[in-house]
Amino acid sequence: MPNYESKNHRGFHNDRNDRRQHSTDNHYRPTNNRRSNNRRRETPQVEVEVGQRFPLTIKRMGINGEGIGYYKRMAVFIPGALTNEEVVAEVTSVATRYLRAKIHRVRKTSPHRVEPRDSYADQVGGFELEHLDYPEQLNFKRDVVAQSLERYQPEGYRHYDLRPTLGMDDPYGYRNKAQFQVRRNAEGQVEAGLYAERSHDLVDLPTCSVQMPVTMHVMRAVVAMLQDLDMPIYDEEQESGIVKTLVVRAAAHTDDVQLVFITNSPKLPHKHDLLTRIAAELPEVTSVMQNINPGKTSLVWGEKTEHLAGAEAITEKLDGLAFKLSARAFLQLNPYQMEVLYAEAKKALDLQPGETVVDAYSGIGTIGLSLASVAEEVRGMDVIPEAVDDANANAEANGITNAHYELGTAEELLPKWIMTGFHPDAIVVDPPRTGLDDTLIETLLAVRPPKLVYISCNPSTLAKDLVTLAHDYRVDYIQSVDMMPQTARCEAVVKLSRRV
Ligand code: SAH
């Protein structure tokens, strides 16, 4: 499983993985290339070479959105191909048990194929399904959850209710955060974008249909400023230069926009000129920060963040509450579907007055604080100090006195709270893609809260965790919510009830 927090990974990072910076697999590096190289040394099951072409019928879609067909009984993964299409495939890599290929030609086109809005959609990650019509994207996501659960066949979960995916009316322009690498190309032009699949080649993105328009407007204007001011852009090979990454995050329900320069050193040449131009030309930018991440590293963000201009954080509104958001704190990438997701989480929790609730993996406290008016007490935790500070500040700013957030891991803090006599009636867990820690699952099984809701951004780890939880819980239903249209990512809210 790739770590999107790493710059090495192709395409869009998924913010849910920013969290991994502090989780146990912080050092997880993308291994796709290494893995296939290793396997290439073994003998594949059939004689086949890179570059070879053959006709292929696509039988189904894989969890990453690729089409899957079979060549002499070997699975062939082919990005961009759709179920029931007939294509001429061209082999791009050969592993022992499977092949990767690209489309040479489509011979029979799926009725669900549409023209992608982004011309580079087949080059960078994050647009895996842009060629599939939206209703079919929603079916695909539900199906991925079904496939993942089927693979694990959790005992006792045979009759769960898997509900149709809740999608967007307009599945574009939703992404509140653009995190683009910058580079100076051979012609001396500053470019900003994402890495091409399985490479370190930057694809410049002048437009991007899934981004909130304001994020792209600010991004491109800042790129032009870097060019005009002849700013030293970081060069990975030479390990020289300053500006590595630009991050623009916008709030959907206030007019706040934050711009962050991630730099190789605390220095920011032409700082004064740059900030003057930003103030004059980009009045929509309300906060400018600098994050320092020295040297060659696979992580995008460094530990230190400094204030350059405007406010230090931006504010997003949700459900009548205001949420302060620091540069490094996690917030769902799709502010419109965030409301849908949380409404589903609330519905599944069905919290009653007087009940206590734990908001585990809380980020800036969005879920717990929106439950605070009903709950007797809310406790939450996160491993990012800024996020925990934001969560507590958000409680205070919204006049909430019965919610408290602590810094630490869910697996350490939950048992600690239990030991001191806190027995929550309900727990909502919203872990990173890696799923729940074994210790946390043990604690859940020991504590057996009557109400348990699992928000998952990775059906594979969800399925695995549900197997263990099946001992004490049954799945009432699974509601998938499309948080990232045009990508293969799935999010799901799972309502569990304790077996008596
Ligand atoms: N519930 C929040 C955040 C979800 S993202 C929201 O909806 O916005 C998951 C969060 O888990 C991240 O903020 C990350 O920092 C945090 N995290 C990662 N590993 C953790 C762990 N072991 N214990 C607690 N929090 C963790």
TrEMBL record:
<dbReference type="GO" id="GO:0070041">
    <property type="term" value="F:rRNA (uridine-C5-)-methyltransferase activity"/>
</dbReference>
<feature type="binding site">
    <location>
        <position position="361"/>
    </location>
    <ligand>
        <name>S-adenosyl-L-methionine</name>
    </ligand>
</feature>
<dbReference type="InterPro" id="IPR012340">
    <property type="entry name" value="NA-bd_OB-fold"/>
</dbReference>
<feature type="active site">
    <location>
        <position position="457"/>
    </location>
</feature>
<dbReference type="GO" id="GO:0070475">
    <property type="term" value="P:rRNA base methylation"/>
</dbReference>
<feature type="compositionally biased region" description="Basic and acidic residues">
    <location>
        <begin position="1"/>
        <end position="28"/>
    </location>
</feature>
<feature type="binding site">
    <location>
        <position position="382"/>
    </location>
    <ligand>
        <name>S-adenosyl-L-methionine</name>
    </ligand>
</feature>
<feature type="domain" description="TRAM">
    <location>
        <begin position="47"/>
        <end position="105"/>
    </location>
</feature>
<feature type="binding site">
    <location>
        <position position="430"/>
    </location>
    <ligand>
        <name>S-adenosyl-L-methionine</name>
    </ligand>
</feature>
<feature type="binding site">
    <location>
        <position position="332"/>
    </location>
    <ligand>
        <name>S-adenosyl-L-methionine</name>
    </ligand>
</feature>
<keyword id="KW-0808">Transferase</keyword>
<keyword id="KW-0489">Methyltransferase</keyword>
<dbReference type="InterPro" id="IPR029063">
    <property type="entry name" value="SAM-dependent_MTases_sf"/>
</dbReference>
<feature type="region of interest" description="Disordered">
    <location>
        <begin position="1"/>
        <end position="48"/>
    </location>
</feature>
<dbReference type="Pfam" id="PF01938">
    <property type="entry name" value="TRAM"/>
</dbReference>
<feature type="active site" description="Nucleophile">
    <location>
        <position position="457"/>
    </location>
</feature>
<protein>
    <submittedName>
        <fullName>tRNA (Uracil-5-)-methyltransferase related enzyme</fullName>
    </submittedName>
</protein>
<dbReference type="Pfam" id="PF05958">
    <property type="entry name" value="tRNA_U5-meth_tr"/>
</dbReference>
<keyword id="KW-0949">S-adenosyl-L-methionine</keyword>
<dbReference type="InterPro" id="IPR010280">
    <property type="entry name" value="U5_MeTrfase_fam"/>
</dbReference>
<dbReference type="InterPro" id="IPR002792">
    <property type="entry name" value="TRAM_dom"/>
</dbReference>
<comment type="similarity">
    <text>Belongs to the class I-like SAM-binding methyltransferase superfamily. RNA M5U methyltransferase family.</text>
</comment>
<dbReference type="InterPro" id="IPR030390">
    <property type="entry name" value="MeTrfase_TrmA_AS"/>
</dbReference>
